[in-house]
């Protein structure tokens, strides 16, 4: 059996090696390293794929979130509501901009931000909501947009883990993840479903005026060289990374489908194991199937409910099976974001999840032998 990787980017590269090498070589031959034709080509391709008017590439996913908030002209002291159970990048940009992060609990079955908790947290100072589409599927965007409209709030989608996913409204209308709020953001970190070979990110919007403003922000506030019309930053997707992404974008749907196939295998194996809760599908998907694109499984995350998550982790190490604990400490208990406003009873779900979750190897190159070994090792230990 091949060595199991948490994410196998080497074998994925082997399948597209000729295309990637040719695309990168074109950058080397033209020396268009910054803001070259490949960046604009990829931008147009991603706009078409997402069905959105404007994609603004930038240097990474964290920058994308920061620039989105800068684009909305949020001011020091404004409150921004986001999930307690997520990676710190979502909240660190709120702090960097001297905004006030307001962390709320998540749903136990989807891991995504709880709309009821959002509504309870709104104050006169609240200006924006940042739902994180965690592990590969959308938060309840229909409800979140209703709340935002009711309270006149902006919505910034953190779509770093769910690019390629589709959200289905109760009416049956479908939209791509990241295109529902006022702004969407994403990361092209190498391990993402659509990843480059370095850092990269992008911002999405259908708002022409907002898109124009953001295009200035990412480039030192310039629309004309050496004329600085707005306060900006230096955050550009370089041409090398755009060259890689342009090759990989046409494969994104097949990559996501391969992840769903692996997820379906896992869920079938674990469905009758008492102490394991498998990921729940939303947006009208009752079970994992090739046609169901509501979940793209950036991570396949189990809940181990018998208190043996940490013992299982040690067992997997012994068997040379990689895993991830996403996330071991809630944001409200991190030193950087601790605040006397927070009460532990308001984070009952998150506090339980951090003790139960474990993410299994999930990528496009998993084979059946590896999947059987991973699942059987876990079942034997748990039972």
CATH superfamily of the largest domain: Type I PLP-dependent aspartate aminotransferase-like (Major domain)
The total of beta strands comes to 14
Mean pLDDT across every amino acid position: 96
Radius of gyration: 21 Å
Q: Give the terminus-to-terminus CA distance.
A: 24 Å
Could you please describe the fold and organization of this structure?
The protein folds into 2 domains: 234 residues, 3-Layer(aba) Sandwich (Aspartate Aminotransferase, domain 2), CATH 3.40.640; 132 residues, Aspartate Aminotransferase, domain 1, CATH 3.90.1150. With 383 residues, the chain is α/β, with parallel strands linked by helices. The mean pLDDT is 96. The protein has a 7-stranded mixed sheet with strand order 1-9-8-5-4-2-3, sandwiched between helices. Helices cover 38% and strands 15% of the residues. The longest helix is centred in the N-terminal third of the chain and has 22 residues.
Summary tags:
single chain, 383 residues, alpha/beta, Aspartate Aminotransferase, domain 2, Aspartate Aminotransferase, domain 1, 2 domains, seven-stranded mixed beta sheet, three-stranded antiparallel beta sheet, 12 helices, 14 strands, 38% helix, globular
Could you give a short description of this structure?
The protein has helices spanning 9-30, 37-50, 61-71, 89-96, 115-121, 141-151, 208-217, 239-248, 252-270, 309-318, 348-356, 368-382; strands at 54-58, 79-83, 100-104, 126-130, 154-158, 166-168, 174-176, 183-187, 201-205, 222-224, 227-228, 276-277, 300-304, 357-360.
SSE inventory with pairings:
Blueprint: H1 9-30, H2 37-50, E1 54-58, H3 61-71, E2 79-83, H4 89-96, E3 100-104, H5 115-121, E4 126-130, H6 141-151, E5 154-158, E6 166-168, E7 174-176, E8 183-187, E9 201-205, H7 208-217, E10 222-224, E11 227-228, H8 239-248, H9 252-270, E12 276-277, E13 300-304, H10 309-318, H11 348-356, E14 357-360, H12 368-382
Parallel strand pairs: 2-3, 2-4, 4-5, 5-8
Antiparallel strand pairs: 1-9, 6-7, 8-9, 10-11, 12-13, 13-14
Helix pairs in contact: 1-8, 2-8, 3-4, 3-7, 9-12
């Amino acid at each position: 059996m091949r060595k199991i990787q948490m994410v196998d980017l080497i074998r994925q590269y082997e399948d597209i090696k000729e295309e990637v090498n040719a695309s990168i070589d074109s950058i080397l031959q033209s020396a268009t390293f910054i803001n070259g034709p490949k960046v604009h080509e990829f931008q147009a391709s991603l706009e078409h794929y997402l069905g959105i008017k404007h994609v603004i590439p930038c240097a990474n996913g964290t920058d994308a979130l920061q620039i989105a908030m800068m684009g909305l002209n949020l001011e020091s002291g404004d409150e921004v509501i986001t999930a307690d159970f997520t990676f710190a990048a979502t909240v660190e940009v709120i702090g960097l901009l001297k905004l006030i992060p307001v962390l709320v609990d998540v749903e136990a079955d989807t891991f995504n931000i709880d709309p009821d908790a959002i509504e309870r947290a709104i104050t006169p100072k609240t200006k924006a909501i940042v739902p994180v589409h965690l592990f590969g599927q959308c938060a309840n965007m229909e409800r979140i947009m209703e709340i935002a409209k009711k309270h006149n709030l902006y919505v910034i989608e953190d779509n770093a883990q769910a690019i390629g996913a589709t959200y289905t409204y109760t009416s049956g209308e479908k939209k791509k993840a990241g295109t529902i709020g006022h702004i969407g953001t994403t990361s092209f970190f190498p391990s993402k479903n659509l990843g480059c070979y370095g850092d990269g990110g992008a911002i999405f919007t259908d708002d022409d005026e907002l898109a124009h403003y953001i295009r200035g922000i990412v480039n030192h506030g310039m629309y004309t060289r050496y004329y600085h019309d707005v306060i900006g930053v230096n955050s550009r997707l370089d041409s090398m990374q755009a060259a890689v992404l342009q090759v990989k974008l046409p494969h994104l749907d097949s990559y996501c489908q391969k992840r769903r196939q692996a997820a379906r295998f896992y869920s079938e194996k674990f469905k009758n194991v008492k102490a394991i809760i498998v990921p729940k599908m939303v947006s009208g998907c009752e079970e994992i199937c090739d046609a169901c694109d509501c979940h793209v499984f950036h991570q396949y995350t189990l809940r181990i409910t018998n208190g043996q998550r940490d013992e299982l982790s040690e067992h997997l190490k012994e068997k040379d099976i990689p895993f991830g604990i996403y996330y071991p400490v809630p944001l409200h208990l991190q030193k950087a974001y601790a605040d006397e406003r927070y009460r532990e009873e308001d984070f009952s779900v998150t506090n339980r999840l951090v003790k139960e979750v474990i993410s299994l190897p999930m990528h496009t190159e998993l084979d059946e032998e590896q999947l059987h070994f991973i699942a059987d090792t876990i079942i034997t230990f748990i039972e």
